[in-house]
Amino acid sequence: MTLLSLFGVGKQFSNGTQALRDLSFCVNQGAFVSLLGPSGCGKSTALRLTAGLLAPDTGTVDFPSSRPETGFVFQEPTLMPWADALTNVRLPLDLKSVRRDEANARAAVVLARVGLGGFERALPRELSGGMKMRVSLARALVAQPQLLLLDEPFAALDEITRAQLGDDLLRLWQEDGLTILFVTHSVSESAYLSQRVLVLSQRPGTITADIALPGARDARLSPATIEAQRTISTALNGAIAA
Amino acid sequence: MTRALDIAFPLALAALVLGAWEWAIHHWQVPHYVLPAPSAIAQALCANFASLMASLGSTLWVTLQAFAAATLLGVATAIGFTQSRLLERTLYPYAVILQVTPVVAIAPLILIWVGFDHINLALVIVATIVAFFPILAGATLGLKSADFNLLDLARLHGASRLQVLWRIRLPTALPYLLSGMKTAGGLALIGAVVAEFVAGSGTATGLAWRIVESGNRLEIATLFAALALLALAGVVIFAALSLLEWALLRRWHESAISE
Lengths: 242, 259
Ligand SMILES: Nc1ncnc2c1ncn2[C@@H]1O[C@H](COP(=O)(O)OP(=O)(O)OP(=O)(O)O)[C@@H](O)[C@H]1O
Ligand SMILES: [Mg+2]
Known about the structure:
The complex is a heterodimer. By secondary structure, chain A is an alpha/beta fold. Chain A has helices at 43-51, 85-95, 100-113, 129-141, 159-176, 187-193, 223-241, and strands spanning 2-12, 18-28, 32-36, 58-62, 70-73, 147-151, 179-184, 196-200, 207-212. In chain A, the strands form two sheets. Chain A has a six-stranded mixed sheet, with helices on both faces. In chain A, helix 2 crosses helix 3 (100-113). Chain A is globular and about 50 Å long. Chain B starts with a helix and ends in a 10-residue tail after the last helix.
């Protein structure tokens, strides 16, 4: 079942930069889709259009059912520095005026799920970069979204933390039946995590390859994953050369 | 340790200067109506203690009211600015004009308009005008400094303007506002003094008037005592606001974290 579809989407910023041109793709319910492309090709723009934070100049962003509850994770943790982890995670619930005790309970549960049980009262400055990213992920999950949009969430992290967070993300995806649109510039990350990779061309971005990946890639360095990396790399090189 | 030195060194300097001052007065036999010795100033302070304290209270009361009014008006105006670009465009030039016009020049007008039977109100208005701008500038900058991504996130979750203001913009603005308030605290005192000077004889009862009066009577020691109290009041205001800033920011803001 299609959860969201972009059709012929174009976006030009007021300074004249054409970020996207004729971008079309569909995402099925429950899918884990990566959006891969060279820097500046319009990946973040596509994600913000999908979230409804930007309006397209041409084309449509369509949700066949109603617009789903959406979680968003930015490249930076983007936390409120004055608020502790629990309050940060609770923000989406506070904005929906969920009762305080219920919101606290739900936020605490999600914090535990991302591996930060016991850090409810910690302020952002007392957390490491990886922990801050986990808080950000927990905040995106707390309102029980159907759709999770991630904009290079692990780009600023070290290799080990990044691998751990990737595995945690996979687990959450499986447990919650989420639909994930994952922006990344890492071929290996997209090959390991996602079921499908959309490769964007250079600016103005449009889809140049739509790669479905085989189901069983149970390890980062399994032959199937390596093979997927090769396919994606070839497509990406084609996109950059074009 | 360093904190103790922060206090010890300035105090040592004060003792040194006062000592030298005292000695110089006696050594060169300087007349008391030109420059009184510190001991004479202390005597004047003790002799006029009750009336000087009453004057101090009067000036501080004007200062406090003006500071509170400037804070409320400044924050309210800044909020208005962030909610309406049109409002900001329209009003900001006037805020600047109010800021750059010397308040001594408009104080007589304000006194006349408000009337000498409401002298206290007039003094408060003058001091408020002096203290208003740093609050407005600090709060406006602070409210506009909210993280764009955080604002987007709020929008994604359907936040109302009021929610954005309360949960994101105001907390972001707090450090900027407090910094503006520290400047405004001193300015409110200066504004109160200027207003008292302009208001002149018989009407005002604050420290500034005591300075004028003592000067006219050549009671220079009393003048210095009033001056010292004024300086002390300024320092206390600044210290109190610094303490407030520290209390509110020490947990999260870089400026107040000492490690
Ligand atoms: N608000 C804006 N105003 C003007 N131009 C913009 C704006 N936002 C993005 N752009 C431009 O649009 C293009 C696409 O930007 P976008 O942030 O979507 O790229 P990206 O693919 O996410 O890049 P990266 O991988 O480096 O994050 C860039 O050339 C950028 O300069
Ligand atoms: Mg980007």
